[in-house]
Design brief:
The protein has about 180 residues and is mainly alpha-helical. The protein has one domain. The chain contains six helices and three strands. Strands 1-2-3 form a three-stranded antiparallel beta sheet. β1 (about 40-45) and β2 (about 50-55) form a beta hairpin. It is globular. The N and C termini lie close together (about 10 Å).
Length: about 180
Amino acid sequence: MKPEAKVSRALPFIVTVVILVLDQLTKAWVVANIPQNTIYNSYLGDFISIWHVRNTAIGFSIGASLPMVAKVILFIVVPALLLVAMCVFVYRTKELTTFQRWTVAALIGGGAGNIIDRIFRSDWVVDFISLKVYGLFGFERWPTFNVADSTVVVAGILLIISILFGKKPDRNSVVDKKEHQIK
């Protein structure tokens, strides 16, 4: 692969780094400024609340009662291996559109943000955004989340929509043209 093609393939990882930094900075601010299990402020009445909670499991507290060994394997090792595989896939494949490359890179940033918490914080993932959902899906408030969580959800939805309804990868794109010149 020519250097120009390598740069084109690596460019989406800028969004990975930006999301990772934003996620870790917001979590560091929450830890430094809001005592755990305390509401910092509410906005739009109490529709949006900022409060410092910890999640020792995954979304909706799934797996909270698992033994620590199972949590490490299921919530750190397996996701870390998946993120590495996603990085390799995004970098090497010709089967993704440019938009899909960027959305997968965003997924990687969000996933990495929570894995970093699980590895380096003794009480696991820092969550701080709480939305009132007025009984939707049986919840008065949506489970508290963070920047990484929202990135994974939004990027995941965009990726699925682009796969289902988007155009196929352009074999004549700049990245692919540069790769074909090598062969």
